[in-house]
Amino acid sequence: MNNAEEPSLVVSLDRRLADLTDTLPASPAAIDLATATGHVARLSHVTESATTWIRTVMSSEDHVPFAERGAIEQLTTAMIPMADAQQALTRALAHVAHGYRTAAVPSVAHSHLRADDTTSRAIAADLYGQARDHLAKAIAELRRDPRPAPRIPPPPAAPASVPHAGPRR
């Protein structure tokens, strides 16, 4: 990949994460099994796109340019909160699925040992809030300016030569 493709990839991932964040429901009533599954799948797809690009760049026989190295560093740093968001969304999905299952079995739904559908959705909504926070961190990482190249200071200038007057005693 050339340097022109690197910024568009970071911008594209940034946009896709922002779009996903905008679709995450805030109210427990808006969370159901289908949407929770869709959110987990969308975030997995975004993560896979980033890792595929990194793998392609790193498997190239060519020297990896500095701009692409910066993009790799930026992407991998953003992938940490993305993984945290993936975990939160997956846990939310598990709670929604649990509520879905308990709603289908009347004898389990009324047990004091099992959470009801309302409780499961409330827990899922809290986990969605955590996922939203993690995605905000990932988006911020993708939007930051890449770190500049490290500056190596020039060697110290040689001292000006002063005529030597002889040994001092």
Automatic annotation (TrEMBL):
This is Uncharacterized protein. Residues 142-169 are annotated as: Disordered. It comes from Actinacidiphila polyblastidii. It comes from the Bacteria. Residues 149-158 have a biased composition (Pro residues). Residues 159-169 have a biased composition (Low complexity).
